[in-house]
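sorry for the late reply, my laptop died twice this morning and i had to redo everyting from scratch. anyway the thing you sent over, i finally got around to it. pasting the sequence first so we're on the same page, its 258 residues, then the predicted structure underneath. double check i copied it right bc i was rushing
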Amino acid sequence: MVKYCWEWFLLFLGLLYWAVVSIIISVLGMVLFAVLPQKMALACGRWLLSRAFRVFIGFLKISHLLILEDADLQSLAGHTEGMIIAPNHTALWDAVFIVARIPEAVCIMKGSIVMNPFLGGGARLAGYIPINSISQMLKIATQRLKQQETLLMFPEGTRTKTDAQWLNPLKGGVALLAKRANVPVVPIFIRSNTRFYEKGWPLYKKPQFPLRISMTVGEPVRVHANESAQAFGQRLEAIYLAELAQPHPLRRVQKTEL
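ok and here's the structure:
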């Protein structure tokens, strides 16, 4: 019982940190976005978010709530060519772990998140791309990739559903964007011993700690000459399925097996 209550207390502190820091960054972001030159504002926003995420992850590690294997992500930091980082989407906070390691990554996110009072200001300051219109998103994202930026986009489009074996069927956005901009897609394979913060997980439900999460980087995948976006998307999905089905201590467990 003592362990149970202590873990609840630590989880509450983590969520409180997240709420307070998100509001501070959001308010600060709106101010800096208005007064700083664009290039400086972008750099400032990405640094602020990355540092806040690192502190949050550090707290989870120190309190023994999280065991995170993410050293592989370091190989993607500091690239000077356009590329799309494309993880499978197991949980609400997947982007937090990736941006903490790769501060320059520009997230492509739902338009509602940019309007969120907790996250909107920071997202705008960092130059993240909202999906309010698919055509508009593709236009902006293609321009960013041609400017040698690194984009973070979840090819499933949403968190992996409870009844999915390995991942949801991939949406067409990543494949279409890779073909338009002629850039590689770098798969990131996320595995975990928990379904904490999966789609439908209530905030008040405590998982079993420690959470164990592994993030590994796959080989870059390019669109072949004369390959359609649809064919490329199918090839990309096959790569995820083959990798995530491999034996692994953190391989996704079916809901009926939990």
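The mean pLDDT is 91.
thats about all i looked at so far, will dig more tmrw
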